[in-house]
């Protein structure tokens, strides 16, 4: 990261800010699909996955960095993206439940495909924006993150991500660090099974340190449950049992999209075990990165993942790019890599040689890697 920083005027310019607003072009596609059905139902998955692969090929890589000390006052245009998305997603999701649940021009399959597309929207964009918002110190932004998470029934993610993932990434304690040779279809049910109780234990431990029981009213789990119950009740009120089914379909699709990204971000990467349950500090080489310009527009620089782990509260326009000699790089952006992850033989063919090269580069002295991906290491203390 030796290149000069972007000039402040460039960072504030419409030309630099506007591409990150591209996600707001996606909700109208869901509305079009709801009105017309048929072939328009493929618009959402097509644009979210394959169109951005084409955009990445056309736009290339973005390696320029903004000054990480840029004050929030200079980032208003970027902060509005994540703030305004919350009401846009809320209206889109529940407006479509109200419209589509009783619709007679859509078959049951078409309604299912419609809300599969909505789940891609609420997962690829909504949960990614929730991730950005939950890391901020501003209470309003954290509350907005809670709303986005509740819309897909995944509220515990805030606790698990902040208290477990960032502290224990690339160790056996972190469920969402995908193990070497672990296919996504084994990874996904494991994460669904392990993360909720892990989040509960993390909050209970925090309360215990304050001398409070797990059931104390300050436990955010109660807020999570109340918000999720409100979302379910609203879905039923607007669309009856059909509305509830459509809401649940988009929720599981969104969770699937989130965990696909989590799977890609740290696949096969591990921190060195120092003995007695101690692990080295998190370094840039413990995250996969991608500098592909268009997919970073869509995902608000999530692919600059090493810097996110270095400074979790750093706002997305200030995240720094790491070069090949500093952190491992993916061959394509997340839209392509998450599709590859759904095909385990293809995924292993693409990624396993890169993991082995990563081991030779950063840990040439470790000869036996089996304990690192076969559960042979102790939990971090």
UniProtKB/TrEMBL annotation:
Leader peptide range in chain numbering: none
Membrane topology: Multi-pass membrane protein
GO biological process, one term: lipid metabolic process
GO CC aspect terms: plasma membrane
This protein's record includes keyword Metal-binding: yes
Keywords: Cell inner membrane, Cell membrane, Iron, Membrane, Metal-binding, Monooxygenase, Oxidoreductase, Transmembrane, Transmembrane helix
Domain Fatty acid desaturase: 112-338
Pfam families, per database record: FA_desaturase
GO MF terms held by the record: metal ion binding; monooxygenase activity
Domain of life, source organism: Bacteria
Positions of transmembrane segments: 20-53, 80-101, 113-130, 224-249
Keyword Cell inner membrane: yes
Protein's cellular compartments: Cell inner membrane
Sequence similarity: Belongs to the fatty acid desaturase type 1 family. AlkB subfamily.
PANTHER family for this protein: ALKANE 1-MONOOXYGENASE 1 (PTHR38674:SF1)
Name this protein carries in UniProt: Alkane 1-monooxygenase
Protein source organism: Marinibacterium profundimaris
């Amino acid at each position: 990261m030796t290149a000069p920083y972007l000039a402040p005027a460039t960072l504030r310019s419409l030309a630099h800010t506007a591409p990150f607003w591209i996600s707001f072009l996606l909700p109208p596609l869901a509305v079009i699909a709801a009105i017309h059905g048929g072939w328009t139902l493929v618009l959402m998955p097509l644009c979210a996955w394959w169109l951005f692969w084409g955009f990445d090929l056309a736009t290339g890589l973005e390696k320029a960095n903004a000054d990480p000390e840029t004050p929030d006052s200079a980032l208003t245009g970027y902060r509005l993206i994540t703030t305004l998305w919350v009401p846009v997603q809320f209206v889109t999701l529940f407006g479509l439940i109200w419209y589509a649940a009783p619709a007679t021009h859509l078959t049951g399959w078409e309604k299912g495909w419609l809300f599969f597309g909505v789940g891609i929207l609420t997962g690829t964009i909504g949960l990614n924006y929730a991730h950005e918002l939950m890391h901020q110190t501003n209470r309003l932004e954290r509350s907005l993150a809670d709303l986005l998470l509740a819309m897909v029934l995944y509220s515990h993610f805030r606790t698990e991500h902040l208290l477990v993932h960032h502290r224990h990434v690339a160790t056996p304690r972190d469920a969402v660090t995908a193990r070497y040779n672990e296919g996504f279809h084994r990874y996904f049910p494991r994460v669904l099974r392990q993360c909720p109780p892990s989040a509960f234990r993390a909050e209970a431990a925090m309360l215990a340190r304050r001398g409070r029981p797990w059931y104390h009213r300050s436990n955010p789990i109660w807020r999570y449950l109340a918000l999720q119950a409100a979302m379910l009740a609203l879905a039923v009120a607007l669309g009856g049992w059909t509305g509830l089914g459509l809401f649940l379909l988009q929720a599981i699709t969104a969770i699937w999209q989130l965990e696909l990204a989590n799977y890609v971000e740290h696949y096969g990467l591990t921190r060195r075990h120092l003995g007695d349950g101690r692990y080295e500090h998190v370094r840039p080489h413990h995250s996969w990165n991608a500098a592909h310009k268009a997919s970073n527009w869509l995902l608000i620089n999530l692919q600059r993942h090493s810097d996110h782990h270095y400074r979790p509260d750093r706002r997305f326009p200030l995240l720094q790019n790491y070069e090949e000699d500093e952190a491992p790089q993916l061959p394509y952006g997340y839209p392509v890599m998450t599709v590859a992850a759904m095909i385990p033989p293809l995924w292993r063919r693409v990624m396993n040689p890169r993991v082995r090269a990563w081991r030779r580069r950063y840990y040439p002295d470790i000869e036996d890697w089996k304990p690192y991906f076969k559960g042979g290491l102790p939990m971090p203390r």
